[in-house]
Amino acid sequence: MNQLSLTWELYEDRIDSVKRYCSGCGNKVTFYDSMIRRHNANGKKIFQYAIYKCEKGHTWNKVLNKYLSKESNALSQADSLENNPYMKKDKYKNEGSQRLTINKFSLSELSSKDIERVDIFIRNESCKIRLDNLLAENLTDLSRTQIQKKIKKQRILVNEGVSKPKYFVKNGDKITIFI
Ligand SMILES: [Zn+2]
After folding, report:
1. How far is the CA of 35 from the centre of ligand 1 (A)?
2. CATH architecture of 2-11+99-178
3. Bridge-partner residues for 28, per DSSP?
4. Of 7 and 171, which is predicted with more confidence?
5. What is the pLDDT of residues 99-118, one digit of tens each?
6. pLDDT above 70 covers what percent of the chain?
């Protein structure tokens, strides 16, 4: 019996992302807001940047604002305004809305490679997500209803035992899928 072992690391969704060409990667990738802000003076102008990073850590500076250096009041005002969305984002993160950054796959693709069993090891620090939702988002050829059926038929196990679709996936869990 061919079997596949995977590790899935679950992340909270990073709210701001942008797709653009990364010269480091050499193709179009997704950059995420690192939440780091910088001010750089260039002659009389002051640039305020947000540091965005691609998955491989290459950076891209998104210009948020430009000021003349004599407008120091405007700058400090902008700084205090900038803090508000920050706070909102942190709160929003804590309230949930998590998504995952993992490689999706289809069971039919695995089946065509004679793989009959997949073990998925979960690393999860803070992501709150149900088993059925996690699998529905990452198995491209099964709907959530189909996944729920598979869980009920014990074709999907958690830690070698029976689970429920609404089970919240925890760090260290092993999800087994029989294809
Ligand atoms: Zn890159």
Report:
1. 17
2. Roll (3.10)
3. 21
4. 171
5. 334 567 888 988 888 889 99
6. 77
Q: How far is the CA of 28 from the centre of ligand 1 (A)?
A: 8
For the chain, what are the domain ranges? 2-11+99-178, 17-95
Residue 24 CA to ligand 1 centre (angstroms): 5
- What is the distance in A from the centroid of ligand 1 to the CA of 43? 29
pLDDT of residue 78: 44
Residues 80-103 pLDDT 10s: 334 333 333 332 333 333 333 456
Q: Which two tokens stand for residue 10?
A: 């679950």
* 24-49 confidence digits (pLDDT tens): 999 999 888 877 778 777 777 777 88
One-letter amino acid at 97 equals S
User: 0.90 cut: is pTM over it?
Assistant: no
What H or E segment, with its residue span, contains residue 116?
A: strand 115-124
Quick one: 121 exposed, middle or buried, by C-beta within 10 A (0-12, 13-18, 19+)? middle
**Angstrom distances, CA of residue 80 to CA of 71, 72, 73, 88, 99:** 15, 13, 11, 13, 30
How many CB atoms lie under 10 A from the CB of residue 28? Answer: 10
